[in-house]
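Hi support team,

I submitted a single chain yesterday and got back a structure, but I'm not sure I'm reading the token output correctly. Could someone confirm the output below corresponds to the sequence I sent? I've pasted both exactly as they appear in my results page.

Thanks,
R.
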Amino acid sequence: MKLSQLVDFPWNSEFKDLEIMDVVDDSRNVTPGCMFVAISGNKCDGSSYIQEAIQKGAVCVVVNGDGYCSSVDIHYEKNVACVVVQDTRIFLSQVCSKFWNTDFDNVVAVTGTNGKTSTVDMVRQIWSFAEKRAASIGTLGVITQDGRLDNGGLTSPGPVFMHHTFQKLQLEGVKNIVLEASSHGIYQHRLDNVNFSVCAFTNFTQDHLDYHKTFENYWNAKARLFDELSQDKTIFVLNADDKASFSKLVNIANNKHINCISYGKTLADIRLVEFQYNKQCQIVTIEIDKKQYTFNLPFAGEFQIYNALCACGICIATGISIDLVCESFEKLKPVDGRLEYVAEKHGAHIYIDYAHTPDALQKALQSLRKHAENRLITVFGCGGNRDADKRYTMGKVASQYADIVVVTDDNPRDEDPAHIRQMIMRGCREAVEIEGRKEAIVYAINQLQQGDILLIAGKGHETYQILQNETVHFSDREVILETVSC
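Hi R., thanks for writing in. Yes, this is the structure output for that exact sequence:
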């Protein structure tokens, strides 16, 4: 593709007909004939790698300018063009959408503090039951009916990976995509220039304040999906029971003349009438247009019902009948690491969950409490180099909702694990503190009695642990299965 087709600036340059063979933002991926976009990241500045990119064959580099400059040609070396832009992140999203031009029946974005992964997985499964060629993109990777691909470790991958993946999925016949929209991804313009048919919202609670600094900034990042990234025909699917957020998002919808589908317990288009616990399942009754529908949802936890309602709204918005949606709910397979039942020991059930925020941990414990015939035990830690303010709160939540609390390590990263545990323990002084996640899990399993429930929280599906600068293999599920088999 010619450079002048990718850059919306007036070109009066010898470079306007320059052929661009690929677009990259990582100098390690540079190949001859490509465009290298230098992104300023949290840890390094992409402009430091310009010379490396040129040496590897880049024919065009894109850099941030101090002030807006439509285009500037700089000869770093012979036959290399430089485009100076106001924001390389915004530019990268624009150029990727042009370079990998795709078209789908539906592209759906789901945002919120908790519930994104479960909701996205449910939508993909329901679409597949409805014989729609579908894929999901998020924390669990890129998943199609044919298998799973890696997503580079990000909930919302960068524009290069995402648009390249879009093209591959389109070539495979995928017509419908549902993706997780993280606050980081929205704020960093990773999701710009995507034609969203539906934007959905789960809930809003504390998380990522290490990055966003304030609740207002965190909210504004989430709200940008609806306010700036939605189009005229986009449909909003909103949680009516998250009242403050719901009110703000409805105002955005009204100002943009966008249709909404609400879900919740009261005054909602998809109304939760009642639900009952039945072992690992829940019997759920909802009401739509004054007609009631009852189905078995094969997940524990009231929060999973809310995720199902959000998925229901998305599927209705994308043309699936409510009858088929309810029929599909009963066929859903478990979502990896989301209040997932793993094993039994001494008549006690053991679950894992990705809960790593105070709200998510509280909801997981409240949900399992209703299944516990005896004690509720939890093992958890908090990540290093992340929002430290939530550590005390998570300890307090665990102390309030569990009978026995074991505080251990999560992904300590560059922080001292003992210091992280100490901050958690301030909120749950009666907890047992155990260094080493494996040791903590083994300890908790050895305490189990008939009728107990054990929740191991924080890592869910993850199969690694980050210790200083080293990433090592670690799986809560594997440790559990190994321990109960002994």
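A quick pointer for reading it: Residues 414 and 468 are 5 Å apart (CA to CA). Let us know if anything else looks off.

Best,
Support desk
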